[in-house]
Write the structure tokens for this entry.
Amino acid sequence: MFWVKKLISQLLMPVPLSVFCLFIAILILRRRKFVKALITLSFTILLLASSQWGRHQLTAPLEGQYPVNNDPIENACLVMVLGSGHDSTIADRATLQLSATALARLTEGVRQLSLGQDCQLVVSGWSGSDAVPQAQVMANAAMELGVNPERIIQFPLAKDTLEEAQFLKWEIGDRPFRLVTSATHLPRAMMIFHLAGMNPQGAPADFIARGGYWWRLDARNLLASQRSIHEYLGQAWLKIKFSLFD
């Protein structure tokens, strides 16, 4: 189910979907009306997803749900940072091995630690195709940023946010904690942790709803749009999944 979900979500991203539509159009060139419709759909998807306007329309509703969290952390302090990609073959410093998204999340996580007393940092993520788990690279990067290694908890087997919630639930139960992830991902992450019966306090990082010229078309807009569409699909899947099994 994990890989089926990943495959379907990737096929519905702007570039694969546009390529698929064009491929079908090539196969059925004789049916001109259908071909024109597919080509028009492909053009529209790429145009909107790669434009500054389209990027903002997709990302802003997600990122606007949770403001930057500057509230002091009271009682037992625990900050969880969700993983997001790395390459352990790059350089010899963990901060350079992390993806830009993972590093942005971790940086905010370290800042959140300063808002409480005697805080613990939870990092997560499996190895995927890499030899080293994401959680280990995140822990090493946190130590490079000055975090005491004795205050770091790792979940190196968690493959996605659902499993991250399960591992943390086993660790802390329903104890409140600060949840750090990308601003576009935070609404879905909060939904997952709430469904697990937990009490997260959202702390967004890695904002991508940047301003700019509405007419500009570039790959950065396309990437931001793809990340947002991934989140909308993820939220829809969660609602379908839990409505079927409740």
Q: What stands out?
A: The chain has a mean pLDDT of 88. The CA atoms of residues 162 and 192 lie 6 Å apart. The two ends are 18 Å apart (CA to CA). The chain has ten helices and five strands.
